[in-house]
Design goal:
Blueprint: H1 2-8, E1 14-15, H2 26-41, H3 46-64, E2 71-74, H4 77-87, E3 93-97, H5 102-109, E4 115-119, H6 124-127, E5 132-138, H7 150-159, E6 163-167, E7 184-188, E8 200-203, H8 248-264, H9 266-286, E9 298-302, H10 308-313, E10 316-317, E11 319-321, E12 324-328, H11 335-344
Parallel strand pairs: 1-10, 3-4, 3-5, 5-6, 6-7
Antiparallel strand pairs: 2-8, 7-8, 9-12, 11-12
Helix pairs in contact: 2-8, 3-8, 4-5, 9-11
Length: 348
């Protein structure tokens, strides 16, 4: 892991803020520079670029444990969630976790004709009831790194005939999630998957579930190059019918970043990340703090959110969220980074 990090990353500070944005690997930066030069010099090959984008789709599909025809491409999680929200009938009940990330929750709140209900993260499975149409939850909570009991949520949803939507933005890359266990998953790829911001993924059932391809443009046609004008006569038979036209630069970079994650192996990366997080959790407790317990790559220390700016001045990049100091450990981090963070951490 250390050799990979040295080859691909060059942070100028102790970077422990992947939960906000991942670092760009050198291979990804090279792909972006090459693509920009092609646009500057007029060497634009859209056919080749679209082929690379399909490779990115296939790479994400492997990470999610699905076939590529069940993966749709987008630019942001909230846009994917909006498709799911728009597919629900009036009066449908949606169950979400208290304090979950707004991009997952707010598209449902914007529909006044839906019943939005919340429950504590660890009570979510028990809160599913007859009449619940959809349960939406993040696999890992952004604010404090807590892990959802996804197996319990999926089981309760099946028992009551509800669909499931899981946001894997803070998970995929270090915490393998079997997307096939849920109806829909969404993932913003600029965090743990180290992609440029502007690449996101939606996974759907083999039949597309209940989604209507409201965003379908020419790219969503079964034969895109024959669907450029007028009404698209046949939308794609795969999840590509839910694509928006992908932004070239983010996806050309994403293919390289996803290749790196595949090479490293999410299980190996996860073990590395969790070990560093456990060291920080223990060290923070020794200094009189009470970090949120668990086995997550994200560690939150309640009450210390205001210390993030001071830590930045000490050359340590973390974030403050919901009153917590939030440190996030990924494949480019080392034990030395943990020591630097602990040395700069104020005592309770």
């Amino acid at each position: 892991m250390r050799d990979l990090a040295r080859a691909e990353f060059a942070p100028t500070a102790v970077y422990l803020n992947t939960a906000s944005h991942g670092l760009t690997p050198s291979r990804t930066a090279a792909a972006l520079r090459e693509a920009v030069e092609e646009t500057v010099e007029g060497r634009i090959d859209m056919v080749r670029w679209f082929a690379v984008i399909e490779q990115a789709r296939a790479r994400f599909a492997r990470l999610a444990g699905l076939a590529p025809d069940r993966v749709a491409l987008g630019a942001a999680v909230s846009a994917h969630v909006s498709l799911v929200a728009g597919s629900l009938p009036p009066g449908a009940e949606v169950l979400v976790a208290d304090g979950d990330f707004s991009s997952l929750v707010n598209p449902f709140a914007m529909r006044a004709d839906l019943k939005l209900r919340t429950a504590g993260l660890h009570e979510l499975a028990d809160a599913v009831r007859p009449g619940t149409a959809l349960v939406a939850v993040s696999a890992v909570q952004s604010a404090d790194g807590r892990l959802a009991d996804l197996a319990a949520v999926a089981g309760a949803a099946r028992a009551h005939g509800a669909r499931t939507l899981v946001d894997t933005t803070q998970a995929t890359g270090w915490l393998p999630v079997d997307a096939d266990a849920f109806d829909y998953t969404v993932c913003g790829a600029y965090k743990w998957l180290l992609c440029p911001r502007g690449a996101s993924f939606l996974t759907v059932p083999g039949d597309g579930g209940d989604l209507v391809p409201l965003q379908a443009g020419w790219i969503a046609g079964e034969r895109p190059w024959d669907s450029c004008y007028g009404m698209v006569e046949e939308v794609a038979r795969s999840a590509r019918r839910f694509d928006i036209s992908p932004a070239f630069l983010p996806y050309l970079g994403a293919e390289r970043s996803l290749a790196l994650i595949e090479e490293a192996g999410p299980e190996v990366v996860g073990a590395h990340d969790r070990a560093l997080a456990a060291c920080f959790r223990a060290g923070a407790a020794e200094r009189g703090h009470r970090p949120v317990p668990g086995d997550s790559a994200i560690v939150a220390v309640p009450g210390l959110g205001g210390a993030a700016e001071a830590l930045k001045g000490a050359g340590v990049e973390v974030s403050g969220r919901a009153g917590n100091l939030r440190a996030a450990f990924h494949l480019y981090n080392t034990a030395e980074d943990v020591e630097r963070l602990l040395a700069a951490l104020p005592r309770a």
